[in-house]
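Appendix B. Raw example, untouched.
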Amino acid sequence: MTETGTVRVVVRGRVQGVWYRGWTVAEAGARGLAGWVRNRSDGTVEAVFAGPQAAVEAMVAACRRGPPAAQVRDVAVEPWDEHPGSGFHQRPTL
């Protein structure tokens, strides 16, 4: 049986206006993860990833790089208790 997990990440740096959310949707979808991503009014990007633990860990590692135009300074990761449902989508800015 594959171990699963759910995490919330907050990405800081130059991560808005550089296609970070669209990139996240594509990358998470390719890994078969459920969850969501959104910009926050403080300039960060927030996301929740749920799925097989190895895929979640790989997505978090990818977030540390981001898309080519991004300049990621920090990725804070914490466990998340709520399962986001199925599919991966973009949410409105909070």
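End of appendix B.
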